[in-house]
Amino acid sequence: MGGRRYFEDLEIGEQRESSALTIDKDEMLAFARRYDPQYFHADEEAARGSVFGEVVASGIYTMAIWRQLDHEIASDIAWICGVAWDDVRFPRALRAGDRVHARARCLSKRASTSDPRRGVVVYVYELLTEAGEVVFTCRSTNLVERRPPDQRRRLTSRSR
User: Fold this and answer.
1) DSSP bridge partners of 158
2) What is the reported pLDDT for 160?
């Protein structure tokens, strides 16, 4: 199916996965030193004494990596915006050298009760290692454009 995917095109249960990305230590450290300078994110020597035994990615960096990879699999969706993240979890620390990929699965969808031009779609998002370990997960509620009415009618009449 090429082109832009609207609310009507999204299917409950549909799952997509991105390509893989290897986490670069220098990039991870630079991000932490600028945005989340906790010692176990930004200081290799001090991090050796942490519960992690080495520097680990901050949650903010982990979410940024997820978002970068998720864009690869969801950039064709007619997003309006996200409105909520629930059940945000980091079950395993992200480390330099980890090879990760993103996964998105559509949990539910419904037409908006306040605006007929949009739908409400809930996804579960994950960032996983090659071994299938989840390093980030959340449930996200999003607004997605509905197919324009003139296109809905054409599609409906073609399918008859």
Assistant:
1) none
2) 44
Read off φ and ψ for residue 74, nearest 5 degrees. -130, 10
- When computed from its CA atoms, the radius of gyration of the chain, rounded to whole angstroms, is 19
Residue 152, pLDDT score? 65
Angle between the N-to-C axes of helices 25-35 and 59-74, in degrees from 0 to 180, rounded to the nearest 10: 120
Per-residue pLDDT for 2 more than 80? no
Name all domains of the chain by residue range, CATH numbers in brackets. Answer: 7-158 (3.10.129.10)
Nearest Cα to 7, choosing from 138, 128, 131, 148? Answer: 148
Note the pLDDT of residue 150.
78
Q: What is the pLDDT of residues 105-117, one digit of tens each?
A: 999 999 999 999 9
Q: How far is CA 51 from the centre of its chain?
A: 27
| Strand 118-129 to 21-22 pairing | unpaired
3-state secondary structure 36-102: CCCHHHHCHHHHCCCCCCCCCCCHHHHHHHHHHHHHHHHCCECEEEEEEEEEEECCCCCCCCCEEEE
From CA 93, how far away is CA 32, in angstroms rounded? 14
